[in-house]
Each structure stands twice: as C-alpha cells, then as structure tokens.
C-alpha cells in the first residue's frame, strides 16, 4: 500500500512539475543555506585551530603590564619590563616548562642591493624555534658565541627571503637592517598567515643581545614565550608562571598582577566560539525559509485537494478508506518535501565547497548534518501536509462526487 501511495504521489507531482518545483523552493533554499553555512563555519573553525597551532605547541606568552583583551595588546601602565633573568627563571624553576625564550620585535626596513622591504625584526635565541615549533628550511641556527656576543647574524622568514632574493640562495649574503649590516646564516620553513591576519613568514631573527645593543638600546624584554611540556596542562603551567612572576616582581597578596600570561588554547577557544556563534545565527536565519517552505507545501496541498475533489469522491465511493486517502496525500506532501530536501542537500554541499575554496578554509561536510536535513525535510512534509490530507480524508463522498 505504501508503494502504491508513493507511486501515485510521484504521478501527481510530475503532473504539475513546475508548480511542484516552486512549492519546494523554500525547502531547497532553507536546507541549502543551512548546510552551506554550517559547512563553511566548521571549515573556518578548523582553520582557526590550525592557524593557532602554527604559533606553537602548548604555548604561553608572558608580557609586562596589566592583563588586556587580546594577544596583540601592548603592555599597560608603567609596569617593570621583563628581563633575561626572568626568561632563565621561568625555564629553570618551573618543571612544567620545556623551554622559555625571549622575544623583542620591531618593524624595520630590510635592504639587499637595490631591493628593500619593511619587515618585523625579532631579537631572540635558538629556543624560539623550539617554542614556536618552527623548523629551518636551510642553513643553521645561531652559534652560542653569536648569541653571547650579539653578533650580527640573521635568519630570514620565507616572505623576506622571496622579496629580497627571489629564487636565489641568501646563505652567506649580507643584508642591512637600516644601518646595521647582518649576515644571513639560515632561512625558516614556511608558516603561513596566522588567525590574526599577520604573515608569520615576514620576519627576520637576530640574536637577542644584538637587538638590545644595536636596535632597542636597553636590556628590556617585551615578551617571553614558554612552551609547556607534553602531557602537562597549560592551565597548570600558567598558574606556576603567574606564581613565580608575582614572587620575582614582589607583588603583594592583595595587589593586581603587573604582567599577563596568554594561553594560545584560550585564544583558539575564543575565536572558535565567535565563529560558532556567527554560524549559528546565520543558520537560524536561513532555517526560517524551511518554515516558509512548509507553509508553501500546505498551501499547495490544500489547492490540490480542492482540484481533486471528484477524484477523492470516486476513491471513497469505490471503497477507499479514510486512512488510505489520508496516507495518499500525506505521502504526497512528504515526497514533495523530501525532493526539495535532496535538492537542497546537493546545492548546499556545492555552495559549501565553493565557499570553502573562496575563503581558503577546509571543506568539512558533516554526515550527521546531511542526515538531519533529510529527516527534517520529511518532518516538514508530514507536519504541514497533515491538515490538507486530513481534510481530503474527511470529505463526504456524495458531496465530493457533486463537485464540478
């Protein structure tokens, strides 16, 4: 009986194919929009997590100043700067810290021959590569003698290398950082853009003491990167660092911290949460068209019942039960809605793929979402098709046969 009902439903739908298509257009748009939005949203979330992971594994960042709202915020107030002794204390006195490394950065013009570019020059040491999980593409890291004496050696990020040398080999060449001559000893592997929109490869590394002596002119450290050991919670590492820094900076029990510690996992969670909220809001707006589509199905099914009054009367007169007539029209509404749902799923996945490529994020379709869209389409057909089907089933056969 169900097979016969489906066959009759398909015949009725194909009899008015264009009207049927317009009827399910709301379902198509709703399902397609929700699937496309969620797919792109999931891809964006994965991209954010991948971008944050490129900054380093289990990474904490320590800055002087009052805790602020984001990793790009500068130090607040007149808090004392960090020092190289703070770096050594964090690494040596906190068991949960694998390595700690200093980092001072400044935007400078980098020159080679008649080519120049503005880039970020960072003073640090070899532990920076470990903390940031950054490999060398060629050359070597700094010798201990270069770090100790502050020699003018430098390691180039991929973006700087391409701008200054193109496809040439920069190893052994001398570049200028404004008036400072610097010999290239290595190049960094490609990192790509971060979640904050900055090009991580647009960087030049030099020994921290060279930066202090020839660029900043002081012994201050603007930031410390601390990489937490595998298997240790970053929350524990953060708490240990805060306790040590409060002790070293002589902060009383009731005084606020004059430094801040950022956990990259917390930043990742914040960005992921923002992406999820935006995806949810857009999906909720798109889902409204499913309601509109359901109302459209109910409206057309009521029209169909009116048009087919004599047909219904004949079926009832020759012995069809109310249940059979109810099932026939309910199946027709459900099949109509499912057709719209299937078209919407295909269109939604296609739009999701297109959106992922345009935004350069992973294409992450969800099988559970596709299944939910299919089931929801069926429910829309059942819910909004029930009233017209019930109306058809309760017709008086005699009155129906009189209908012109």
Structure explained in plain terms:
This protein is α+β, with helices and mostly antiparallel strands. It folds into two domains: 2-51 and 269-402, no CATH class; 80-257, no CATH class. Helix content is 57%, strand content 17%. The chain contains 13 helices and ten strands. The protein has helices at 2-15, 17-54, 84-93, 127-131, 144-149, 158-165, 208-216, 234-248, 264-307, 309-317, 322-359, 367-393, 397-402; strands at 59-64, 97-112, 115-124, 136-139, 153-156, 174-177, 180-188, 203-207, 223-228, 259-263. The protein has a six-stranded mixed barrel. A hairpin with a 2-residue loop joins β6 (174-177) and β7. α3 crosses α8 and α11 (322-359) runs antiparallel to α12. The longest helix is centred in the last third of the chain and has 44 residues, at 264-307. It is elongated, with a radius of gyration of 33 Å. Residues 69-77 have low confidence and may be disordered.
Brief descriptors of the model:
six-stranded mixed beta barrel; 2 domains; alpha+beta; 404 residues; 57% helix
SSE topology:
Layout: H1 2-15, H2 17-54, E1 59-64, H3 84-93, E2 97-112, E3 115-124, H4 127-131, E4 136-139, H5 144-149, E5 153-156, H6 158-165, E6 174-177, E7 180-188, E8 203-207, H7 208-216, E9 223-228, H8 234-248, E10 259-263, H9 264-307, H10 309-317, H11 322-359, H12 367-393, H13 397-402
Parallel strand pairs: 3-8, 5-7
Antiparallel strand pairs: 1-9, 1-10, 2-3, 2-6, 2-9, 4-7, 5-8, 6-7
């Amino acid at each position: 009986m169900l097979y016969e009902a489906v066959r009759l439903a398909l015949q009725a739908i194909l009899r008015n194919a264009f009207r049927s298509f317009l009827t399910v257009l709301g379902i198509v748009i709703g399902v397609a929009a929700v699937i496309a939005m969620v797919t792109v949203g999931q891809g964006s979330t994965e991209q954010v997590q991948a971008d944050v992971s490129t900054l380093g594994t289990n990474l904490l960042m320590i800055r002087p100043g009052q805790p602020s709202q984001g990793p790009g915020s500068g130090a607040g107030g007149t808090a004392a700067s960090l020092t190289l002794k703070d770096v050594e204390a964090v690494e040596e006195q906190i068991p949960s810290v694998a390595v700690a490394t200093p980092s001072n950065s400044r935007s400078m013009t980098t020159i080679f021959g008649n080519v120049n570019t503005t880039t970020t020059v960072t003073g640090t040491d070899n532990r920076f590569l470990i903390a940031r999980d950054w490999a060398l593409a060629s050359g070597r890291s700094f010798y201990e003698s270069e770090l100790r004496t502050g020699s003018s050696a430098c390691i180039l990020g991929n973006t700087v290398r391409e701008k200054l040398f193109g496809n040439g080999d920069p190893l052994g060449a001398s570049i200028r950082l404004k008036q400072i001559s610097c010999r290239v000893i290595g190049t960094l592997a490609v990192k790509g853009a971060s979640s904050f929109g900055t090009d991580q490869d647009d960087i030049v590394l030099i020994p921290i003491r060279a930066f202090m002596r020839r660029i900043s002119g002081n012994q201050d450290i603007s930031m410390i990167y601390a990489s937490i050991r595998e298997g240790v919670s970053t929350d524990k590492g953060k708490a240990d660092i805060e306790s040590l820094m409060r002790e070293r900076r002589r902060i009383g029990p009731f005084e606020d911290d004059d430094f801040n510690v950022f956990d990259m996992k917390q930043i990742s969670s914040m960005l992921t949460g923002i992406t999820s909220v935006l995806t949810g809001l857009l999906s909720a707006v798109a889902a409204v068209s499913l309601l509109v589509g359901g109302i459209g199905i109910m409206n057309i099914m009521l029209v169909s019942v009116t048009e087919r009054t004599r047909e219904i009367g004949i079926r009832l007169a020759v012995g069809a039960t109310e249940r059979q007539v109810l099932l026939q029209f309910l199946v027709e509404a459900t099949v109509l809605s499912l057709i719209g749902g299937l078209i919407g799923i295909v269109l939604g996945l296609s739009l999701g793929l297109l959106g992922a490529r345009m935004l350069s994020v992973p294409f992450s379709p969800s099988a559970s979402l596709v299944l939910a869209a299919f089931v929801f389409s069926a429910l829309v057909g059942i819910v909004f098709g029930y009233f017209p089907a019930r109306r058809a089933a309760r017709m008086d056969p005699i009155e129906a046969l009189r209908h012109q």
